[in-house]
Amino acid sequence: MTVGEKIKRFRIARQLSQKQLAEMAGMSEPGLRNYELGNRHPSEKQLKKIAEALGVSVYAISDPCIDNCSGVMQVLFELEDDYGFKPNDADGDIGITLKNETGSDELLNGMQKWCAESGKLDRGEITREEYDNWRYGFLRDVSGTFIIDKDE
């Protein structure tokens, strides 16, 4: 989801018009519209103003950044929203669950394959190098299409 799409999603959830949000953030309505349409990208200063006006963390409307814990948490929240990921606690080990009914067979298939390969590494059936080669070769289509090898 783009920054503009996130801004729009939160604006609509708060039942605000573009004009209202623009006024609350101290900016022009056309400027906000251009952000939502993806024609322009807000500066960090503008993002902070918009986030404050929406009552959300700046991470909630920013591009994903996994360089810190706040960014990682926001990515996890987006995965929950977009794909139904759920946190779970198994005797103190925190993990992520993807329910079978998420509607994304391709994603579920990919997660199952990842789980299987990770299990092989944990059991010593493959080396870390073999595991890394599998992970980094898993998605082969640079166009952004999720590719799952059917023959594996």
UniProtKB/TrEMBL annotation:
Record has DNA-binding as a keyword: yes
CDD domains, per the entry: HTH_XRE (cd00093)
InterPro entries per record: Cro/C1-type_HTH, Lambda_DNA-bd_dom_sf, TransReg_Diox_bact_type
Keyword match Hydrolase: no
Chain ranges of the HTH cro/C1-type domain: 7-61
Keywords, comma-separated and alphabetical: DNA-binding
PANTHER family: HTH-TYPE TRANSCRIPTIONAL REGULATOR, METHYLPHOSPHONATE SYNTHASE
Protein name listed in UniProt: Helix-turn-helix transcriptional regulator
Origin species: Candidatus Ornithomonoglobus merdipullorum
